[in-house]
Amino acid sequence: MVMNQQNASSGKKSRVLVVDDHPIVRQGLALLINREHDLVVCGEAEDAQAALTAISASRPDITVVDISLDGPDGLELLKNLRGRYPSLPVLMLSMHDESIYAERALRAGAQGYIMKQEATDKVLVAIRRILSHEIYVSDRVASRMLHRYIGSPGAVEQSSIADLTDRELEVFRLIGKGHTTRQIAEELHLSVKTVESYQARIKEKLSLRSARELMQHAIQWSISEKSA
Amino acid sequence: MVMNQQNASSGKKSRVLVVDDHPIVRQGLALLINREHDLVVCGEAEDAQAALTAISASRPDITVVDISLDGPDGLELLKNLRGRYPSLPVLMLSMHDESIYAERALRAGAQGYIMKQEATDKVLVAIRRILSHEIYVSDRVASRMLHRYIGSPGAVEQSSIADLTDRELEVFRLIGKGHTTRQIAEELHLSVKTVESYQARIKEKLSLRSARELMQHAIQWSISEKSA
DNA sequence: TTGGACATAGGGGAATCCCCTACGCCACGG
DNA sequence: CCGTGGCGTAGGGGATTCCCCTATGTCCAA
Q1: B81 min Cα distance to partner chain A (Å)
Q2: What ranges make up the beta strands (E) of chain B?
Q3: What confidence tens digit (pLDDT) does each residue in A32-46 have?
Q4: Residues in chain A whose beta carbon is closer than 8 A to a beta carbon of chain B?
Q5: Which class in CATH covers the domain with range A161-227?
């Protein structure tokens, strides 16, 4: 963990805490952020534990958290922070290109979600956006989520999985267990064609493009269900 | 891709090419390396294709390659480089603690293997070690490999995923990212039929019965890898 | 009673899955 | 120095799935 006091002179820089278990990423972000005239890294942490210590020590204006930390992961940390520091905004950082985590992160109270694949300047954009009390997500993720929440704006509370019909959810669950279309049809005493219909509608409702993506989400969901 | 010419004055800095699909990591490494008096980043690339271009354009003394690139992964690039530039040393960088990759990398001709979890200065150590014609692996990886060599299973052997061929593992990984058979074929510049062959062999080796089960395991594996 | 939402299911072409076979390398052991 | 076997590559061809449309019956609420 490294502290940085270079905002003493200007006195009005926004203080950023960086939490990531990869020192290289931490360092990269720190150098990037410290180059800005209105931002300064006030601390770094490599895990949730260190992050809590660092926050109480350095009082950041915003926290950038990698989602896949060792030990308690970024989502855990985020939930923890929501309890202790409700007004401290959090930008989640992720290796994942999928929006699965974006949803979870935002639902858990993050103010932004950005992937490491994106250009570095997007991180700065996201930080500033969040500091001005807006929410940042990449265009792709945003459009997908917007698409999903048409009709129920305002309260971004429930997963779109909740929109699934009982039958659809059943099929979704079985997909997540790795079952074949044919197997599912037999287990539910349905025509293969019917199961195909459900799969199509699930893809529609979850804005997924291929059967492969559908499986990906179903499996990820089933994993998170087990530990929930 | 960014070029950097600041070695004009001193004239004897070692030129480093950085290959990673995360701009933040590239930038972090670049800033880190460029701070050294004897090293300079001569170029960056985000994938294997760009790496080949950058190498012929900037003639690096050493290449730092992330193992999990999009499209052809770091191992592929490494093998490719071994054919084209046998004397160009490569330091493999990885998110994974798994020694599967370390062994594969070294066997494929890498001069070093380091994890992003390690301190940033280890990267510099590794680079200098390699530039002086030595091989670098972290103590942790080294001891683990030794343990395996000795054959004493202190910890139970990793899953049979370690039995997968480099190519098979690559396909497995892309399946885990939700990619389609066709997409994988295109990304790896292979026939769809070849990709199908790999899938069949993976299923065989992992004792899986259907493509669905294969996807399930691939996705689960990719999740656990990312947050390992 | 008319419009949805939901469960069910078929048609048909494209993409896969799945089981086999095959061929060129290249390393390693006999 | 020649097998033998692992590895990467790839095709044939039938069985399934995928994917986009359409369709019917049911129940419930407006």
Answers
A1: 24
A2: 14-19, 39-45, 62-66, 90-94, 112-115, 136-137
A3: 999 999 999 999 999
A4: 21-29, 31-32, 68, 70, 73, 95-98, 116-120, 123, 175-180, 210, 212-213, 215-216, 219-220, 223
A5: mainly alpha
